[in-house]
Amino acid sequence: MTKRGKQASRKAAARKYGFLEVPLIIRFAFLALTLYATHTFSNVSFNDKEANAAIGKPGDPSKVSRIIKITMVDYMFLPSEIDVKQGETIEFVIKNGGNKKHEMIIDTMTNLRKYAKMRRNHPEIKTTGQNQVPLDPDERKSLRWEFTKTGIIDFACPLPGHFKGMRGKINVEN
After folding, report:
1. What is the 3-state secondary structure (H, E, C) of the chain?
2. Spans of all domains in the chain
3. Span 107-144, pLDDT tens digits
4. Among the listed ranges 9-13, 19-23, 99-103, which one has the minimum average pLDDT value?
5. C-alpha distances in angstroms, 151 versus 3, 45, 50, 68?
6. pTM, full prediction
7. Superfamily of domain 48-173
8. What is the pLDDT of residues 50-72, one digit of tens each?
9. Distance CA 137, CA 120 (A)
């Protein structure tokens, strides 16, 4: 079959089966974008090692020194300010007492802003990490965290429309 005959055959098949013949460069670009997006959003994380160095690390369940209860209501955390000691491992028992889905993420404010922007632009993307807890209404979950450095650590709900009001601070003291 000649080159012209092969092209005509492909075009006829495309019409018959209801798809368009897409140039190779377009197919390649689509594949590259798909792979990039899958890698970028498959496990959203903003430099875990750097963030954990600044905010602490996941807590060992056998080293929990106390339990702090946090209630999420629509657009606020109760309490929104928490005091802990450096080296302390806290088990946060988080309850979503609101009518909407919420998340609690412990991180730097820089990373929390990145999460919130990403969720505004891509609300279907699910974030995952040891410093994060998603909760449906009336759901209760735990998050254990060891606070290794003094300073102020932030927490927030990054969901669209929630971030400005649903924020809190953890004061880590000596």
Report:
1. CCHHHHHHHHHHHHHHHCCCCCCHHHHHHHHHHHHHHHHHHHCECCCHHHHHHHHCEECCHHHCCEEEEEEEECCEEECCEEEEECCCEEEEEEEECCCCCEEEEEECHHHHHHHHHHHHHCCCCCECCCCEEEECCCCEEEEEEECCCCEEEEEECCCCCCCCCCEEEEEEEC
2. 3-42, 48-173
3. 999 999 999 999 899 888 777 789 999 999 999 999 99
4. 19-23
5. 70, 22, 15, 19
6. 0.70
7. Cupredoxins -  blue copper proteins (2.60.40.420)
8. 446 789 999 999 999 999 999 99
9. 20
pLDDT (mean) for 148-152: 95
The two three-digit tokens of residue 118, written as one number:
């990403």
56: tokens are 């602490």
Place of tokens 């657009």: 75
**CA-to-CA distance for 116 and 132, rounded, in angstroms?**
13
Using DSSP bridges, classify how beta strands 81-85 and 167-173 pair: parallel, antiparallel or unpaired: parallel
Question: Count of CB atoms within 10 A of residue 151's CB?
Answer: 13
Placement of tokens 């990373």 in the chain: 111
Lookup: tokens for 168: 């809190």
Q: Which CA distances in Å does 68 have to 37, 78, 137?
A: 37, 11, 19
Distances (CA, A) of 73 to 77, 123, 150, 164, 165: 6, 20, 28, 14, 11
